[in-house]
Amino acid sequence: MYLVADINVEICAAKNCKLCTQYCPEANTILYSDELGKDKGFKYGSAYVAVDRCKGCAQCVWVCDNMAKNHAIKMVMIDQLPQAALTENITYGEKSTTAVLTSPVIG
Amino acid sequence: MSLDYVKFSNGFEKFMPKEYRDMVEHGPFGKKVTVSQMGSFKEVLEEHPMCAGCAMTLFIRLAMIAFPNPEDTITVGTAGCGRLAISQAAIPFVYGNYGDQNGVASGLSRGLRLRFGDKPKDVVVMAGDGGTADIGFQQVLHSWFRKERFTTIMLDNEVYGNTGGQESGMTNRGAVLKMAPLGKKFEKMNMVELAKVAGCAYVATVVPNNPRRVESVIKKAVLVAREIGPSYIQAYTSCNIEYAIPTDKVLEDAKAVENDRYQFQEYITEEAKQYLTERYGYKEFLAKPAAPAAAISGKV
Ligand SMILES: Cc1ncc(C[n+]2csc(CCOP(=O)(O)OP(=O)(O)O)c2C)c(N)n1
Ligand code: SF4
Ligand code: SF4
Ligand code: SF4
What we know:
heterodimer, A: alpha+beta, two-stranded antiparallel sheet, globular, B: alpha/beta, Rossmann fold, 11 helices, binds thiamine diphosphate, binds iron/sulfur cluster
């Protein structure tokens, strides 16, 4: 089993600084959704991780803890995530993206 | 090489993979995208086999976002880790033999000018420190002496990463590596000064822990190379494997190295300043308004 990054929407949406995606080494991996967060009544949207692209380096955890000082990201075993975003379920819009969350492991 | 090359051929759209469709419809082609919009558009860089948490990967990712016209850009690379990612982008990539990259880029950039005239087609070389300062040194220096108009980017991880840890000219004196067990005996080469002496019109050093600065220097370097002369960017892009940097400490390491030997440096000729100001509306090179007299003479 392996670790991937998991962003807590409630904690992220309170700040929504968009720093983590600027420092994730992998392209198209940490994305933003205006809907995530707003659908829970927050003013901002939230970052989320396309877990099929995440290589588990935990740099985003360092960025959120030390630069954003928001502690919204944790490393989690992929099979411990009940739901996650996968590239195939992500839709790009004009200024934001949306993701339908599904089980990240098959079976 | 134009917006046309990324479009779907009639009838093929439904057979294209999702990633490709996303890139055509929501990628950076024909638009201006910036680092601050990251996470909301499809990037041209796709999945690749570089190590988890590699700072070189982050730098390449940022560099591609910074290209002023990605649809009119060709990258040139060579043996080394970086090409593993650079080749996985929706930007044409030419693979020079190890060390040949600046020779290949010279011919390519001249050929593109003959073929397309004044229409800008940008050539950007990205190669490791071994490829640039050791094996390719002669070709790099001569391309600068000849004032070839393209951008050279050194991905400086201070080691031959791809082949398991030999010292390069850019390794620091004293560094012990797997295949330099006695420690390097010579100083790190000063490629920045060499670039200035050899005639580069724009030279900058940068670290990936400042994404906006990476964006800014790459844009300037590519624009200057369109008309004025060669440009050189030297980026510190650590190797987690050969320097045993835990992946979640890569940015801490980058900060420490920035403070130690990679402070931001930028050199630009007067001609290049004038060109960026007049042609592309840059304001940073305009003469600063004179300070009020009191501030100059101090307290009276
Ligand atoms: C002519 C030739 N000699 C040697 C090699 C083997 N080789 C492949 S990558 C590499 C070193 C790359 O080091 P560097 O340019 O610093 O890039 P890095 O992998 O560190 O990013 C070498 C020696 C080769 N491919 N071709
Ligand atoms: S760094 Fe943290 S707070 Fe900022 S966008 Fe990322 S997860 Fe949210
Ligand atoms: S763990 Fe690494 S690869 Fe995964 S999202 Fe975070 S920074 Fe990106
Ligand atoms: S070997 Fe080093 S430079 Fe090469 S991909 Fe891995 S961490 Fe990056």
